[in-house]
Amino acid sequence: MESEKYKHIQLGKGDVGRYVLLPGDPFRTDLIARYFDEPQLVAHNREHKTWIGKLDGVPVAVTSTGMGGPSAAIAVEELIRCGADTFIRVGTAGPVRCPEDCDRYDGVIVTGSVRDEGTTVQYVPIEYPAIANRHVVEALVQAAARKGLHYAEGISQSKDSFYGELDPACSPEQARLLQRWEAWQKSGVMCSEMECAALFVVAALRGCRAGAIMNWGDMDKTIQTACDAIRLLIAAADQANG
Hints:
This protein is an alpha/beta fold. The protein has a single domain, classed as Nucleoside phosphorylase domain (Rossmann fold). Strands 1, 2, 3, 4, 5, 6, 7, 8, 9, 10 and 11 form an 11-stranded mixed beta sheet that branches. A hairpin with a 2-residue loop joins strand 2 and strand 3. Helix 2 runs parallel beside helix 7. The two termini are 34 Å apart.
């Protein structure tokens, strides 16, 4: 398999470097690639579109995961097999704790996720936490601070049903959905999205690093912050290697 292209992302071993940004939307990869030096579109199959390039002379990539945990897990599994080991999810989310979060913060740097989805239970029991890597979180925090941006740090809810959140009345599970939403609010969950739990769990189980930065719709600030965080991680790796 090492000499072949992996089925879903259509990339092979060595096609990407260790650092990969992960938006959900394939079209968003084009926006992110604009911040790379020497950007090159190398694959687009199904929901997975990949550009490669460089930041500070080091190979980086951006691959779209599509929507939800199953496709995100597939993308991460195959990217790891291609050589990646450090991931930053770049996406949008809805506020949970209070609607005013959209005005108070530029978004959320996710430190961990509620596993309110079905993908990760296929990997490991539900008691296993979905936690972001502390070095990736710190790089995102530093990158945002250097730009004077105000991202909250906190927990996301990773779910499977978009309309279960947006329109719970359409579901026969309305009462349970509303009750659980209230529980997330009372427990300080910052935002709701669909991929972080899968990313964090798969990365941790494979010995890799992952983090996420979410926004309410303004992608440019978030993309720039994620790219700057990659630069900080590159610099830290260079320093560690002497």
